[in-house]
Amino acid sequence: MAISRSVIFQIFHRPSAISCRCLCTSSKRRLSRADPLIDKILRVDHAGEVGANRIYEGQMAVLGSSKSAPVIKEMWEQEKEHVKKFDELLPKYRVRPTALLPFWNVAGYVLGAGSALLGEKAAMACTVAVEEVIGEHYDNQLRELLEDPEHLDKHEELLDVITKFRDDELEHLETGLEHDAMQAPFYSTMKQVIQLGCRTAIWLAEKI
């Protein structure tokens, strides 16, 4: 299946509104340093949700008229809400977005559109691979926050947000499995490669 010019255009010209606002804000003023743990958590989570949003956007660009479209669109709508929430939390906690947001925008869209070009099952396999990593990542963050009584008292809102979003991502994982993700060609290899990329991107976003 050929990639239309409109799909290619969106790869490079559809960064999320939050990305633009956060980058502009951070460039206009110097924000005081947040709690190191909260700084790391919010920066990487925001980046991850921007990437996930773009994955589903890319999948919808290719599969928008397929029978899987309503399912993909529903998951995409949830990701939009996730991005919107982290959009609010970054300035609230005085956390700058990752400098790698342009990369996340392009990489997420390419991954979404690329997996969709391989078929609906491959798109669902991509969802399973990504959401499994994100679910594990949110679990690790919750453990870190719960280990420190100070964070329990100060960041109840953040704990609630991460818990809800973790549950949403795991629901997406189950949705992917229910829609034949494991029947995608080279499922195991695809999953391993995508998850390696996700974990590398998470590591980078925590630091840059």
Automatic annotation (TrEMBL):
Its EC number is 1.14.99.60. Binds 2 iron ions per subunit. Pfam families: COQ7. It comes from the Eukaryota. It is found in: Mitochondrion inner membrane. InterPro entries: Ferritin-like_SF (IPR009078), Ubq_synth_Coq7 (IPR011566). The keyword Iron applies. Signal peptide: none annotated. It comes from Paramuricea clavata. Component of a multi-subunit COQ enzyme complex. Keywords: Iron, Membrane, Metal-binding, Mitochondrion, Mitochondrion inner membrane, Monooxygenase, Oxidoreductase, Ubiquinone biosynthesis. This is 5-demethoxyubiquinone hydroxylase, mitochondrial. Catalyzes the hydroxylation of 2-polyprenyl-3-methyl-6-methoxy-1,4-benzoquinol (DMQH2) during ubiquinone biosynthesis. Has also a structural role in the COQ enzyme complex, stabilizing other COQ polypeptides. Involved in lifespan determination in a ubiquinone-independent manner. One of its GO terms (molecular function) is 3-demethoxyubiquinol 3-hydroxylase activity. Pathway: Cofactor biosynthesis; ubiquinone biosynthesis. It is a peripheral membrane protein. Its cofactor is Fe cation. Belongs to the COQ7 family.
